[in-house]
C-alpha cells in the first residue's frame, strides 16, 4: 500500500521521473561481456577479478559466421579471440545472440540443482559436505554457461533508439519492474518478474551501458528535494519496520543458507545470534569473489565466508564463512552458543564478558560493518545509507538489535511507483507450491515447443 503523501509530493516525483530521459543517467562504461561457451570456472574468475555480480552473455559467432546481408566476414562481426570474454566493441548478427545476464546467484543455484539426489545436505557432517561439494564442484566448474540449469533472468535489454525516447519512469516500470526483453535465452526457471539491471545495445548489438536499480536509487537521492513529505516518512510509517525477516544462526552451513534463499526466492538472510540479535548479513554480494575452486567453502558456517581454497568450504557454517571473506575470525559464537553451553549457569557471564571486553559494532563478529536503522529512520536517511555505503539493503532493528524489517533497492523503487503509477506494479511472485508447479509446467511446455520448432527448422 502506498504511503499517504500530499498530491503535491506525488506530482513532483512523477514530474521528475517523467521529464528525465534515461540517457541523462548514462555514462561511458567498460561493460564486461561473457561468451556462452565460457565455463563456470572462467566466468567466476572474470566476475571476481572485476568484483562484479553479473555480466551480459552473448552467443559468440562461429568462425564462418557472417553479418546479416553481407557475403563476407566483416571485421565488426569477426569471431572473438579464445577465452571467456566477448569484446565490447565487437558487434553481433542480431539480438538473438544476446542471451541474457549471468549472475553469481545463477551459478550457485545451478550448482544446487546439480547436488539434487546426492543426499540430505542439512543432515551431513561438515567433512562429508565438504567432500561432496569438492567432488561435484570440480566437474561443475567445466560446465559452459549455456548449459547451466538456471541462467539469464535477472536483466532486461533495451535498444539505444528506444533508450533515447525512454524516461526514467519508463525504464523503472517497463524495464526493472516489468522486463520485456530478458534476452534470447529468456531465463531458465525464473520466478520473479522484477530485475535489477537493464542493458543498452546499439544497431550492431553491442552492449554499451547498463543501468541498475542502484543507479535509480542514486538518482532519486540526488533529487531528494523533489520528495516532498515522503522524505520525512519513517520506516515504521512506510511499513518497513514490521515485515518478516528470514534469519538463520551462524552455525548453519553456507550451502544450506543458499538453499534457503532459493526456497524463499530472496537475495539475503539476516544472521542472528542465540537471542535473535543481528550479527551479520549473508547475501549474494558475499559471493562476488567466489571461484570454482572455492565451492567447498559453502560447507562453512555462514559466519566464515569464501576465501577458502576448495568448493567444499561451502559446507562451513555461515558465521565462519562470512569471517573468511572479510579477513577475520568468527568471534565468540562457535562454542558459547552450543546447546549445552547455552543451558549452563556460566553462559550469561561468558556472553556479558565478551560484550564488556571491547566496544561492539554491528557485524564485527563476522568481519562486517552492518548498516542498520531504527523504525524511526526517515526515508531520506535510509536512501543516504544505501547510496553512501553502496549497499543493496538496510535492516530495521528494534532496541535489542533484533531485525524487524529490511529495506532493499527494489522496495524503494516499488514504493516510488506505488505513488505515481500504482497500476504498473507487477503481481507478487508465486507464493504457493501449486503456483510454482504451474509455472514450472508452463516452462516445460514452452521448452518442448521451442525444441519442436528447432527440429522443424532443421528439416526444412
UniProtKB/TrEMBL annotation:
The keyword Protein biosynthesis does not apply. Keywords: CBS domain, Repeat. SMART domains: CBS. GO terms for cellular component: cytoplasm; nucleus. Residues 241-298, 366-425 form the CBS domain. Residues 427-445 have a biased composition (Low complexity). Transmembrane segments: none annotated. Residues 427-460 are annotated as: Disordered. Residues 446-460 have a biased composition (Basic and acidic residues). This is CBS domain-containing protein. It comes from Tetradesmus obliquus (Green alga).
Amino acid at each position: 500500500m502506498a504511503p499517504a503523501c500530499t498530491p503535491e509530493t506525488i506530482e513532483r516525483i512523477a514530474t521528475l521521473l517523467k521529464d528525465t530521459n534515461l540517457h541523462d543517467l548514462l555514462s561511458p562504461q567498460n561493460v564486461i561481456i561473457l561468451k556462452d561457451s565460457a565455463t563456470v570456472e572462467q566466468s567466476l574468475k572474470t566476475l571476481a577479478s572485476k568484483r562484479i555480480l553479473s555480466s551480459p552473455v552473448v552467443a559468440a559467432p562461429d568462425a564462418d559466421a557472417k553479418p546479416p546481408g553481407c557475403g563476407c566476414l566483416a571485421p565488426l562481426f569477426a569471431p572473438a579471440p579464445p577465452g571467456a570474454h566477448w569484446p565490447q566493441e565487437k558487434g553481433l548478427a542480431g539480438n538473438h545472440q544476446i542471451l541474457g545476464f549471468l549472475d553469481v546467484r545463477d551459478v550457485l543455484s545451478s550448482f544446487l540443482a546439480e547436488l539434487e539426489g546426492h543426499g540430505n545436505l542439512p543432515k551431513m557432517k561438515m567433512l562429508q559436505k565438504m567432500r561432496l561439494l569438492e567432488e561435484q564442484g570440480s566437474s561443475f566448474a567445466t560446465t559452459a554457461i549455456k548449459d547451466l540449469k538456471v541462467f539469464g533472468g535477472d536483466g532486461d535489454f533495451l535498444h539505444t533508439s528506444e533508450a533515447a525516447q525512454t524516461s526514467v519512469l519508463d525504464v523503472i516500470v517497463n524495464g526493472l519492474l516489468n522486463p520485456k526483453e530478458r534476452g534470447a535465452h529468456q531465463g531458465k526457471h525464473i520466478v520473479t518478474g522484477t530485475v535489477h539491471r537493464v542493458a543498452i545495445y546499439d544497431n550492431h548489438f553491442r552492449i554499451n551501458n547498463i543501468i541498475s536499480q542502484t543507479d535509480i536509487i542514486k538518482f532519486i537521492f540526488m533529487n531528494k528535494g523533489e520528495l516532498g513529505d515522503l522524505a520525512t516518512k519513517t520506516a515504521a510509517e512506510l511499513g518497513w519496520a514490521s515485515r518478516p525477516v528470514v534469519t538463520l544462526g551462524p552455525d548453519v552451513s553456507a550451502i544450506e543458507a543458499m538453499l534457503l534463499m532459493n526456497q524463499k526466492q530472496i537475495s539475503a538472510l539476516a544472521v542472528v545470534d542465540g537471542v535473535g540479535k543481528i550479527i551479520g548479513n549473508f547475501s549474494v554480494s558475499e559471493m562476488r569473489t567466489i571461484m570454482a575452486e572455492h565451492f567447498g567453502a559453502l560447507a562453512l558456517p555462514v559466519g566464515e565466508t569464501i576465501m577458502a581454497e576448495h568448493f567444499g568450504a561451502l559446507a562451513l557454517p555461515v558465521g565462519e564463512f562470512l569471517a573468511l571473506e572479510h579477513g577475520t575470525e568468527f568471534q565468540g559464537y562457535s562454542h558459547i552458543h552450543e546447546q549445552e553451553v547455552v543451558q549452563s549457569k556460566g553462559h550469561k557471564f561468558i556472553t556479558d564478558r565478551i560484550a564488556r571486553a571491547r566496544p561492539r559494532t554491528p557485524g564485527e563478529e563476522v568481519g562486517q560493518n552492518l548498516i542498520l536503522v531504527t523504525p524511526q529512520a526517515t526515508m531520506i536517511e535510509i536512501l543516504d545509507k544505501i547510496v553512501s555505503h553502496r549497499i543493496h539493503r538496510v535492516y530495521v532493528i528494534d532496541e535489542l538489535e533484533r531485525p524487524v524489517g529490511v529495506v532493499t533497492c527494489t522496495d524503494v523503487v516499488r514504493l516510488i511507483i506505488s505513488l505515481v503509477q500504482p497500476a504498473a506494479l507487477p503481481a507478487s511472485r508465486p507464493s504457493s507450491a501449486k503456483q510454482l508447479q504451474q509455472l514450472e509446467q508452463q516452462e516445460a511446455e514452452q521448452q518442448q515447443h521451442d525444441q519442436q520448432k528447432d527440429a522443424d527448422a532443421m528439416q526444412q
